[in-house]
Amino acid sequence: MYRPSNFIPIGTKVNSWDDLKPHFDILINREVSSQDDLETLITHYSELISVFSEDYAWSYINMSCHTKNDDYVKRYEKFASEIEPEFSKLANFLTKKITSHPQFSQLDSTRFGQLSKLFKRELEIFRDENVPLNAEIAKLESKYDQSSGGITVNIDGDDLPMPVAGTRLLSADREVRKNAWLAMQESRYAKKEEFDILYNDMVKLRHQVAINAGYENFRDYQHDNLHRFDYTPADAEAFHDAVETCVKPLALSINKKHCEQLGLDLADYRPWDGSGAPEGQAPLKPFEGGEELTKKAIDIFSILKPKFGENLKVMDQNNLFDLDSRKGKSPGGYNYPLEVTGMPFIFMNAAGTQQDVTTMMHEGGHAMHTFLCNEEPLVQYRETPSEMAETASMSMELMTSPYWDKFYNKEDHIRARREHLEGIITFFPWCATIDAMQHWVYLNPKHTVEERDNHFVSLTKRFGSCVNWDGYEHYQRNGWQQQGHIFGVPFYYIEYGIAQLGALQVYRNFVRNNARGLDDYIKGLQMGNSKPIPEVWKNMGIKFDFSEDTIKDLMDFVQEELDKLDVDVYVADERSS
Ligand SMILES: [Zn+2]
Description:
The chain has a domain of 110 residues. It contains 23 helices and five strands. Helix 11 crosses helix 13 and helix 16 packs antiparallel against helix 23. The protein is globular. The C terminus is likely disordered.
C-alpha cells in the first residue's frame, strides 16, 4: 500500500484551518531549484491534499450516516464552508507555483502529462470570487442532504425510511404497491416547495459561478470543471439522440412485456406497477441485513479473485461499511475513498432487495478500484474521473452476476440476472432524461418552477414511457426531484451511461475469456487517472466510443445474454419437474 513520505506527521488530524495552513506555508515558501525539488513538491502537495481529503471524507461520512446528529452536521459544515474555501485558495496558489516553474514543462511527459492537463484546467476555471459562492452552494447541498435524509413514509401507522417503504413496490399485491407508492409520493411532495426553492438558489449560484469564470452557462463550465477532456457537451446531446433511437424501443418492449406478465392492459399500467412482481411470485429476498450482505459479497468477490475478497474482509474488520437502511441516514449509496487509509468507506441503504445486491457489487467495484490505485503516490492519479470510476463499478456488477447464486436458488438467480440485464437497458432512457433535464435547466437559468416541471414531463415522453399517470400528473411533474444527483452533484449522471457502455464491453470480454477479461479490467483500473480515459479503455481492451453503432452493438449483446438465460430457465424447469 502507498505510504506517505514524512512531510506531514502520521496521525495529523484536521479540525480547523490552522491544522493545515502551516503545511501550506512550508510548501509555498519552499525554494525549488531542481527538477527533483519540483517532483518532491508535487508529491508533498499531493500528501497535503490527501490528509485534508481523508478528514473531509469522514466529516461527510459521519454526517450522512447520522443526519440528525448536530455535532456531525456542524463538523461537516465547518469543512464545507470554512476549511474548504481557505484550502482551495492556497491550493490554487500552490498549483500556480508548480505550473509556472521553469522546470515544470521539462518533467517527463509520460508521467506528468496528465497532471499538467489537470493543473492547467484547475487554474483556467479558478476565480477568487467563486470561493464564497461555492461555500454557499455546499451549504445548500448539505441542507438538501439533511432534509431528504429526514423523509419518512407513513404506511399503516408506521414511519418507514424511504428505501424500506420502497420494497413494497416489489410486491405481487397491487393494493400494497399502490398504497406504498401513494404514501411515498405524498412524503416527497410535501417537500416539493422546499426543494424547489433550494434548487432555484443552487441554479442561480451555479450560473453566477460559471459567469464569473468566463463561461456563458453552468453546463459548459461544469463540463470543464468535471475534467471531461475526451468529449464535448454536443457529444452528450448526441448520446441522448442515440439512446432515443437505439435503446428506447427495446426499453419500451421490456416495459410492455412486464405489463403483460402482471396481467394488465397497457392502458392500465400505472406508476406503482413498474417494479411489481406478477401474481403468485414473491419479490426476490436475497438476504436479511447488512451482515449477511457483507459475508456473501466477500464470498463472491473471493471467487472472482481471492485478493478482492480479502480487500472487503479488511474493510469489514476496520468498520468501513454502513449498509442497513435506517431513519436519519442520507439516501442513496456511495464508496468514499479514504486517501490516507488507502481504503474506502461504503455507505448504503440496504433493505434486503436485489437492487441492494447490485448496489453492493457496484460499490464493491469502486472499492477494488480504490485498492488497485492505492500505491500511486499522486492523489490526482488515484482519484479517477467518474466515467472511469463507474466503469469499474458497473463492470463488477456484471462480472459478479454469475455468482449471485450465493444469494439464490437457480430459478431466482436467473430471475435476478434477467432483471439486472433488463435494468441496464431501461436505465439508459432515464440516464438521458436526467442529463438532458440538466442541460435545459442550466441553458435556461431564468426558467420558472412550472416550466421546469413541464420540461421534465416532455423529456419523459421523448425518452419513452408507457405508464398511465391519470389523476397523478402532479407527482409525474415532480419526478425529477427523486434524483438526488440533480441537487448535490450537478451533471454527474451521463457518466453512468457512458460507463455502462464500457462495462458491457468489459463483460463481453469476460464472457469470452474469464481470466483475460479480469486481467484486462485490473490493468485498466490500476492506471487510475494517470492517462486519458480513451487510453485507459484501450488498455482494458475496450473502445471509448458512444456512437449509435456501438450502442446498437452492445444492446444486441445484452439481448444475447438475456436469450441465454431463457435457455437456463428451460433447464431449471426440466430439473424441477
Ligand atoms: Zn458508482
